[in-house]
Amino acid sequence: MPYARLRGLPVLVTGARGGVRRLGTVEALTFDVVAGAVTHVRVRRGRLRGGSVLPWSAVQAVGPEGIRVRLPDGPVAAPEHRELIGRPVLTDAGRARGTVLDAAFDPATGRLEVVRTTCGALPAGRLRGLGDHALVVRSGPGRPPVPPPAPPG
């Protein structure tokens, strides 16, 4: 599912008795690009109510009409959020490779599949980190390095 399509959709909470209520709208997704996954959903609850952060594990279903979640029992420790869309892309060798337009992820697992940029698509395996300034990607064809063989013994 494209990340840009999810923004602004309703976030619905499933109650203990099966009822559903609207919590707010999807403001942003937080990605761990090294792990290749969505980690948190940032929910805008309204102008005067602020927002909240939910772990991806609280998501029960994602669809074109919104996200259904179950509220966690306790407080959620959320990592610092860095917006992915609009971020410049740099290779680990320092070469500019466009700007992030969108990211596609598996809505069932939160696994990041591809990042779409102004210079083309980047498979999730090429992503190295997301910093304050840019998304850093691995130079080259995109295969992760093969670890050296274990010493005999």
Features:
153 residues, mainly beta, six-stranded mixed beta sheet, 48% strand
What features would you describe in this structure?
The protein is mainly beta. Helices cover 3% and strands 48% of the residues. The chain contains one helix and twelve strands; from the N terminus they run αββββββββββββ. A six-stranded mixed beta sheet has the order 4-3-2-1-6-5, with no helix packed on it. A six-stranded mixed beta sheet has the order 10-9-8-7-12-11, with no helix packed on it.
Binned strand content: over 45%
User: What is the rounded distance between the termini?
Assistant: 46 Å
Choose one word for the global shape. Answer: globular
Largest sheet, spatial ordering of strands: 4-3-2-1-6-5
What's the tally of helices?
A: 1
Mean pLDDT: 88
Strand count: 12
Structural class: mainly beta
Q: Whole-number radius of gyration? A: 18 Å
Main sheet characteristics: 6 strands, mixed
Query: Helix coverage percent of residues?
Result: under 10%
* Strand/helix succession: HEEEEEEEEEEEE
